[in-house]
Amino acid sequence: ASLHILKVEIGGDAQSTDGTEPSHMHYENDENYFRGYEWWLMKEAKKRNPKIKLIGLPWAFPGWIGRGENWPYDYPDITAYYIISWILGAKQYHDLDIDYIGIWNERAFSSKYIKLLRYTLDKHGLEQVRIIASDRLWEPISFGMLIDSELHGVVDVIGAHYPGTKTVQNAILTQKKLWSSEDYSTFNNDVGAGCWARILNQNYVNGNMTSTIAWNLVASYYEELPFGRCGLMTAQEPWSGHYKVESPIWITAHTTQFTQPGWSYLQVDGHLEGGGSFVALTDGLGNLTIIIETMSHNHSKCIRPPLPNFSVIPQRATFYLRGSFGMVETLQVWHSRLDFESGNSTLFQQLHPVKVWKGRFSLDLNVDEVYTLTTLKTGRKCDCPEPPPPQPFPSNYKDDFNIRNPPFSEAPNFADQTGVFEYFVNASDPGDHVFTLRQVVVQRPITWVSDADQTISVIGNFKWYVNTI
């Protein structure tokens, strides 16, 4: 899929939709930069694309930050120190450079805290780390930046969630970069692919957003948990190794294989006469990429917000290349067609190049299609090996947690929902309980949702109804 940007949760020991992610500081005097899977994930992403941009964002915070209150801003210096420690740990222990840092996912922001965060970043030599805010709605952050020049100076990107391809006037007036910093969240069948194709284009065409981030990357959690299969692909059977590259992956490739961070959107109208949209991007060095989508209403509904009615019809579209692009003679063509009748969708197929005649070319566009036309010849679709077949969770399963140097802090197949369960070695135990799994959070975190009062971890098969443990 050639992803350009990866946002990870800064674990806060509390529920953040499909589970809890462990904090690097459960307690004030505790630091451990090897908990959870996000460090591993960022390093794996960098192996595949060394230029990928990294964002860290907290959903929750360990309880000690609030000094007994369910609020992270009463002691902003402590919160800033906690976030900075995560950024420094990423570099020191994993050689990862964090590019952007967020405030608090879909919760209130504090202008005082954001300013202090910038000051603390700079004090620690992290001037290159940019701040994105507020990962909720366009307001009140946009208005706040217009009336507070200091706040305006420290926020680099305004990030809104599920904007429905629209922005607001105040956000535009800030003249900051506008991002859809969480979007999609849709079941990853072909309708999900249609949703993704439509918003990848129209977030810019309608809303001037130059980045769109899908929640979530890979559906790697028990499907019966909230938002099952709402990832770009599915890999929810670690016991079998089965995975499925779903159609949203190839929709992603239509944009990401033929552009890079640093490319610029051209300010074209972007709306097709028969419905649908197109965007054009350039690297400023003569390369051009055009992405066209003709997704119909019923085949491109995202999970939110509600989608107003619109129509798309088959059409012939003619494009004119002017200025420096007038010299372009051919464009490489990649095509997808989502087929909702037979189910035989065409995904990311290379077609014959299009000839550009005197700066113009025409395409016959059907409904529910995506085209990429580009000067780049680097596109490719892998012949990936077949994954192992799917298997239910094994009905006989055991784990004695007897592992001296575990690759992760938590045991496989457990999905913590409240609290954090970690490997623990009790060297003083004389019997069978040297190696155990231990719940380690003893103070209620600053929660993102209403966490349960008791600790919970899920394992197994949701269809089981008679178990012996």
UniProtKB/TrEMBL annotation:
Residues 265-379 form the Glycosyl hydrolase family 59 central domain. It holds the Pfam family Glyco_hydro_59_C. Residues 416-465 form the Glycosyl hydrolase family 59 C-terminal lectin domain. GO terms for cellular component: lysosome; membrane. Its EC number is 3.2.1.46. One of its GO terms (molecular function) is galactosylceramidase activity. InterPro entries: Aldolase_TIM, GH, GH59_C, GH59_cat, Glyco_hydro_59, Glyco_hydro_59_dom. It catalyses: beta-D-galactosyl-(1<->1)-sphing-4-enine + H2O = sphing-4-enine + D-galactose; a D-galactosylceramide + H2O = an N-acyl-sphingoid base + D-galactose. SUPFAM superfamilies: (Trans)glycosidases. GO terms for biological process: galactosylceramide catabolic process. Keywords: Disulfide bond, Glycoprotein, Glycosidase, Hydrolase, Lipid degradation, Lipid metabolism, Signal, Sphingolipid metabolism. The active site is at E106 (proton donor/acceptor), E182 (nucleophile). It comes from the Eukaryota. The keyword Secreted does not apply. Residues 1-257 form the Glycosyl hydrolase family 59 catalytic domain. PANTHER family: GALACTOCEREBROSIDASE. This is Galactocerebrosidase. It comes from Chaetops frenatus. The lineage of its organism: Eukaryota, Metazoa, Chordata, Craniata, Vertebrata.
